[in-house]
């Protein structure tokens, strides 16, 4: 058992020295937390990151991720359905190639190998299909 001074850990709460015996595990956890906090302070100093997320300059919106609202989920689903429908209105080869590339995650080389064609023609077909989709959505 080790003795620690709570005033060192919590100076706002303990105004006088208060000693407590703690186990080795608790002491190790406290020391690890202190080392992590010191490392964080060093990184903040070295990178001159002396700002707060409460500052109000919009930085918190870029760093804090928010859970999507039901409206966001619904709109994303509608957008995906419209996009899928638009892909299916393309010529059959372009639709298959776009579907394979973006939905199935295949590369143009893999698609070309599966179809037995040149990869440049697959790339060109995908590029032209994207241009057609852009015209439909703009």
TrEMBL record:
InterPro entries listed in its UniProt record: RNA_pol_sigma70_r4_t2, RNA_pol_sigma_r3/r4-like, WH-like_DNA-bd_sf
Domain of life the protein comes from: Bacteria
Domain named RNA polymerase sigma factor 70 region 4 type: residues: 81-133
Gene Ontology terms for molecular function: DNA binding; sigma factor activity
One GO biological process term: DNA-templated transcription initiation
Protein name in UniProt: RNA polymerase sigma-70 factor (ECF subfamily)
Organism of derivation: Catenibacillus scindens
């Amino acid at each position: 058992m080790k003795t620690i001074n709570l005033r060192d850990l919590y100076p706002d709460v303990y105004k006088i020295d208060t000693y407590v015996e703690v186990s080795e595990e608790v002491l190790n956890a406290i020391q690890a937390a202190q080392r992590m906090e010191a490392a964080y302070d060093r990184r903040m100093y070295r990178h001159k990151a002396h700002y707060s997320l409460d500052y109000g300059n919009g930085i918190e919106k870029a760093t804090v991720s928010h859970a999507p609202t039901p409206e966001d989920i619904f709109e994303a689903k509608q957008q995906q359905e419209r996009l899928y429908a638009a892909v299916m209105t393309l010529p059959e080869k372009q639709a298959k190639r776009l579907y394979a590339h973006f939905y199935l995650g295949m590369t143009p080389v893999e698609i070309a190998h599966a179809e037995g064609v040149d990869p440049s023609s697959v790339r060109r077909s995908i590029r032209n299909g994207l241009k057609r989709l852009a015209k439909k959505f703009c």
